[in-house]
């Protein structure tokens, strides 16, 4: 009886998102978590390794072990770029949470240094794998709404992160809007070349004190004239507000928020429905699972990575241009 | 037995929208259409007068007849400013379809000339009277969503008007977005002082040939930092797309499109619902009726006009600044 | 220049529903209210006649006046059968509010006596003209959902009528469910031949004291086996609950309630939408208007009456069988 | 460092639903699958055991092993009653898929025989754990809609099972409606004491040939007069149609179907949404997980089993009475 091929995976980072990926890897019939790495959270690493039958090791062990097929990078942002380089240069496939780095120079250097690596690299723009977004993009490409004219991304977090996080985040555009820049590119089907941004700090004094912003409206435009508009807030008190819309010559595609359940209460004072799912890990649970299935397809040579280093680079270039626009009050080239 | 006071109204303009107002006047228990005026459409004027038991007369007769309480102006745009002036100076209350004029100089002149008139003037920003929009604004004012942070207006026509109309329209921002500028002001609760616009002609070659635009994204900002974003298209092939949204510190208010009916067809290939109402007169039928009820309240001294000449002037100033922004690629002061 | 033919209508009954029909008649370009009749409400008759430019007369004048094309009967139920007979025998077309009579013997007598009358008779089952219901029935007939298997009618009033009304109403099945029996027949496309009913008086002690019921579930079955199920309550505290559903071999059609507006309020404690329209005249405003347009088509010989005396007779037979079922606890033949 | 208590579970039956429960057990931090039992599907048992790190054993080993805390019974229906008895008499907690047995005599015997067992018994009425249904029931109990008057359960499968399955199923009422009888009891808050049923075989000739039914409408009534109505079909071509509704004196609670995603496509010919989830394991994925969490609470002594043998017995008594009603055409006592 033949053995089924199973890919051995090393997971670096045993925090919240590392656990999500580790469980998906563990549950997928073609992948196992072989190593868990987290020098900064020993207990979490042990507990996670225990759960999935893996071994806790030092990072260097991962790159040296020829039996490891792929590395999943879920550690802190400043460690991403080194780990990507080491993994790819060691011939491992890489699945890395966004971003590659907050500095465009460092991102460029990573892309340059790994240019000749043949192992695949998937950057974790998880929202591309949300079933509604993926189906939307497929329908746009299939021509269901004709020519794309205007993409709208509404993206609001349920509450602002701790101010310590904000301080290290790279700012709203590089930390949060970056997902929306990627979604706009995913749906536009054409590279935007200019951006204009309007923003303010309205939700908390702490954010204003950090000279960061929490509420924004950013408009991208492509050479053909088609546009994308993104609205953001760090705080939608009713839940995680994630809606996208593509207007085309033959119609429109849009997604609605996902409520925690479909329960409806009707009383004389109004009809009550449940609020949108609050937490991103719950809201994008299916997306994370499908993202992993995609990566297994990549490992099997059945698919090209849906989002790569170039996508990370482009999104960061837009974020940087958006910041310039805030300063100059002008439309800026990306 | 006491007589009930009935206001005598003169309707100028017997076209599509003139008929809507005339029928609402006729059905209201406190108002009658006394005169119909339309020198350019004799047959339509006769037919309409017949329907509501009115008399067809020349314009001058309206201003000279002391028994006329109010004038409803539904004629072509270039005639508005003169008719407003004459009516107000004759002491008649005025209800005029938007705009006062396409030229800000002419609008300023009208406001200057009628400054001392005591008769009330209601400008027909009909969408303020849509039950959903009116209730939204009331709830915003009541604090239901806390502090207003971001207003979103999605406003798309089902199809572009004839190119002859486009040519005389003043352009997208002065003809169509003007309603959205007013809605943004209605909901923001603070006067916006800057605007930045992105636009293109994507739906038809005719519009591009006229150097007009048909697809746009305009962002307004107020001194406090709060924002409004408007997206427009001249052509939403699925119907009249009219949605508004206000995001605040305690929650959000939004309206959805109104389908032609609530019928749902569920089959294996998908769940089908009806498209949004296609025609503005059908979509805003209730708004026009409630607008008239408001004007009767104004005539009875029970309410101040909800939208005045100042509102028309402000919306036009925003439109003009938006055009400047398109040219300069910069945020422009309003 | 040719004159347009205008039908002269006599409206009998100047109450709530009489006013609705009179205004629709008045606004229709091919009909005028010529007479208003209401010996029991002189003031209401005068006021209504005034509004539509009609004359108040005694009933006999209507039947004697050869210029009258049609009679609209909106008076109290016990007067319906006589007025129908007199009008049809006088050669007038008749549009009568349901029911013909609460007694099946009297209904049979009316049908017998007017059997040879050639003037058309439309019975006012207004819900057939609701745009969603009419479109649903058209799609069922067009085969959009294949063979009909199960019809569901949910029909709940916002609040019970005064007990004096209940006492004269003929009981829930003859007064309220009668509309649902008609809707079930309209959608089934096959005559039901048996019925079984379950019911109780749950909403008010007054109704129980009158030995009437206010909450019911009635199941009809056709010879082919297909079914319809109706659920009723005299009191849906959140509004007028009117939903219908047809399940077929290829899919399903259903209608949802119509909210007073599409406004949505999203806050941390829940998402609030507006309640369904509360009042039947508001909810079925379009249906009444379309019903009148249909009757004008009938007058013009362009359509056969959508609902006739036979439909009134069949619905009453079902109601009577449903009452027998309540007594016997058995499925009863209709 | 203290050890965390982990319950050892034996799973009997390695089929579709056995796998669902085994994965939930495996993922729960307080439970492990220790044994997998399936004498009739060796390969499936091995594969499942492999996945969760368990051992494949004979049934008798389960009852003899004192370290086993609980038995999860997912084998074929005819084996349930024996396995329940053996497990409970061996002092194991039991979680058994419905039904206990298709024969009421056998069910009574199981309850009698295990009357003195102290280990808890949870019967798998999984829909009680659907988040929307659970929240609905909690709100009903909390009085959010006042007194319950009418419960409506719409329950339609996407397609009929193979005719071999139908033959062994016990018939529609004992196989499929049994879930709805349980849901009605869960929501009514009062034991129904009579039932009347209407049914037919409309979807397939095979079902008619087996003298079974596939389309039904069943009404239950309680001593207080309150009612529940259930409508069923073996085939809803658009997906798994699962909706419940409770009408009360102060309002109504209802659930809507769960679409595969919230994507909306708007085109001139209609607005398209996704169909409801098709497969029960996907639709009730969360319910199965929450059901297991509840069972762990039971094992920890923190909760009483939400559904017990008595609930299975009551639902079967209703099913039997419904069959009698079909034969007699009468309301039957339960």
Low-pLDDT runs of chain A: none
Helix content of chain A: 25-40%
What is the number of E strands of chain A?
A: 15
Helix tally of chain A?
Answer: 13
Distance between the termini of chain A: 56 Å
The CATH topology label of the largest domain in chain A is Dihydrodipicolinate Reductase, domain 2
Q: What is the largest interface, and how many residues per chain?
A: C-D, 38 and 38 residues
- Specify the CATH homologous superfamily of the largest domain in chain A: Dihydrodipicolinate Reductase, domain 2
CATH top level of the largest domain in chain A is Alpha Beta
Entry keywords:
homotetramer, 13 helices, 334 residues, 2 domains, alpha/beta, Dihydrodipicolinate Reductase, domain 2, Gfo/Idh/MocA-like_OxRdtase_N (chains A, B, C, D), six-stranded parallel beta sheet, Rossmann fold, seven-stranded mixed beta sheet, EC 1.1.1.18 (chains A, B, C, D)
Structure in a nutshell:
Four copies of one chain form a homotetramer. Chain A has helices at 16-27, 42-52, 59-64, 80-89, 104-113, 131-141, 163-168, 172-175, 177-188, 205-209, 280-283, 285-299, 309-328; strands at residues 7-12, 31-37, 55-56, 70-73, 93-97, 121-124, 148-156, 194-200, 215-221, 227-233, 241-248, 251-255, 263-267, 270-273, 332-333. Chain A has 334 residues and is α/β, with parallel strands linked by helices.
């Amino acid at each position: 009886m033949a053995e089924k091929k199973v890919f051995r995976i090393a997971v670096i980072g045993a925090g919240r998102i590392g656990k999500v990926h580790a469980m998906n890897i563990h549950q997928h019939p073609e992948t196992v978590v072989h190593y868990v790495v987290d020098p900064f959270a020993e207990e979490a690493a042990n507990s996670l390794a225990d759960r999935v039958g893996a071994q806790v090791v030092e990072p260097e062990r991962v790159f040296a072990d020829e039996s490891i097929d792929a590395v999943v990078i879920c550690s802190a942002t400043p460690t991403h770029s080194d780990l990507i380089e080491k993994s790819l240069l060691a011939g491992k496939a890489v699945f890395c949470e966004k971003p590659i780095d907050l500095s465009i120079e460092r991102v460029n250097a990573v892309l340059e240094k790994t240019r000749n690596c043949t192992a695949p690299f998937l950057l974790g723009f998880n929202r591309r794998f949300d079933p509604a977004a993926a189906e939307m993009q497929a329908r746009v490409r299939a021509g269901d709404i004709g020519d794309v004219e205007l993409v709208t991304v509404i993206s609001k977090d349920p509450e602002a992160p701790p101010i310590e996080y904000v301080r290290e985040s790279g700012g709203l555009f590089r930390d949060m809007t970056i997902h929306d820049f990627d979604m706009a590119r995913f749906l536009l089907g054409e590279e935007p070349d200019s951006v204009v941004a309007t923003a303010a700090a309205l939700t908390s004094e702490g954010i204003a004190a950090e000279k960061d912003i929490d509420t924004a409206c950013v408009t991208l435009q492509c050479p053909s004239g088609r546009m994308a508009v993104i609205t953001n807030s760090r705080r939608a008190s009713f839940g995680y507000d994630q809606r996208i819309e593509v207007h085309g010559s033959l119609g429109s595609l849009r997604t609605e928020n996902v409520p925690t359940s479909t329960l409806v209460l009707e009383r004389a004072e109004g009809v009550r429905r449940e609020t949108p799912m609050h937490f991103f890990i719950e809201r994008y649970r299916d997306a994370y699972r499908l993202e992993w299935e995609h990566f297994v397809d990549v490992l099997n040579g059945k698919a090209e990575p849906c989002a790569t280093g170039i996508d990370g680079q482009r999104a960061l270039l837009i974020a940087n241009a958006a910041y310039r626009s805030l300063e100059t009050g002008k439309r800026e080239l990306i």
